[in-house]
Amino acid sequence: MATQAKRSRPGVVLIVFLLILAGLFTIMAATRTWGPKLGLDLQGGQTITLTATNKTVSLESLELARDIIRQRVDGLGVGEASVAVQGERHIVVSAPNVSRDDLVDLVGATAQLAFRRILQVGVGTGPASDPAGEDGTALPGLPVAPTPEAEDGEDPQQLGTAEAIGYQPTSEDLSYFESFACGDDTHDDPTRVLAACDATGSQKYLLGPTVIRGQELSTASFGVPQGELQYAVTLTFNGTGTQQMSELTGALVGQPEPNNMFAIVLDGVVESAATAQDRILNGEAIIRGGFTAESSAALANVLKFGALPLSFEPSQVETVSATLGGEQLRVGIIAGLIGLIFVALYAFIYYRAMGIVVVASVLVAGLATYAMMVLLGTTMGVALNLPGIAGAIVGIVMTADSFVIYFERIRDEIREGKSLKSALLSGWTKARGTIVISDAVQLLSAVVLFILAVGSVKGFAFMLGLTTILDLLVVFFFTKPMVELLGRTKFFGQGHKLSGLNAEHMGVSRDSLLGRRFRRATATPTTTPQEA
User: How far apart are alpha carbons 497 and 405 in whole angstroms?
Assistant: First the structure.
């Protein structure tokens, strides 16, 4: 027992845990973020209805577009977004914490990426426009110069790499480029030349057939490259794309300008015009262009999750009010507070002064949950919705249940003849397995629900899982050391009648509770010689 008591340092454990909790709030203060990111039902947001403009729309392509849009929205940290197929050609997107224009731009981007040789460079005449054609076909009346047909065995939507690199502009190409103005309708047929402008419309380019398509892209990331000051988007290609990039840059190195340049074209707009100074062998390319952190993240996100299989136009965009959600939140908070008050009253009535442990544990679990929601909302875009609040309340109340398991184990140990001091330690040893198993089952349920659920139900599952993990931490590093510390005080350790650890409440005698062993004096009859 002496060795066990020496190793047990509940005060140190309790202080370290409270310092970590204080550290979470310190981070909140440093970032000046005191409230969690709210979901659509609590904060309001935007709802956009996208209508497919293609002549034929299959259910498979519509569902694929839905999944890509959901990945795009989630990739930007827009928590609790809802993306659903409606009817035969509509997708409805609802998202909080995002502006109307940003949502329209994000979900409507087609992300058709291509690498093309630059054949000619001219002065632009105005702002560039997105491609107006569908499915890569030329628009009616648009002067597009013909290019060689793909040979047998080649992809009809892609010329051979060497053929695309070696293409020379014809007189019709040059005439077309001369008459082209930024803002004119264009196309993105990979087998034809393309006239396009940069995003500002200050320069226009005559581009050769596509050498590398977006399908060869493996990943896209954003950041500030080493030694630079502005954000850029880094592209990494697969094996085929790496070989094509090597052939393209190898053919351009040493050529006079602009024949030594290639363009990175996104949705018919030249995002970057790069000079091939060396042959690129590692399959990486960087798009530069005065990006901010937000714009580079948006571009990388769109490229990473791929192009939409259909063309969409926003048929309806509306603002969602949070009035109803705010009223439900107010009622829910009131109901939760009433429930916690009843829990506290029950704890003090049944456990008497030990109810302090129940109330303190629940409060600490609530503070930890709130801090985690604020920080997760800031760093990962996790948003709190009404189902999430319900999941948090359920999870936090589990902290009280864990104390009940611990207390009943202490009572069982005392009834088996152990002293209060010993029961506090041995009771925890037997209770912790039950607590871990109980929380593990609840955590598994939350994980399964999160995987299978859609929409706002995921918020309930996420908060339930988060609070379950926090319950384990609170019970191990707050509840248990707090009970052990209280047991060392005179009020609790000697079983005061208001402590909740008194002999009557435990169902044993006071001597048994305190571990005292009294030997009753037995009178031994003696005789005197006279009596004998």
Answer: 22
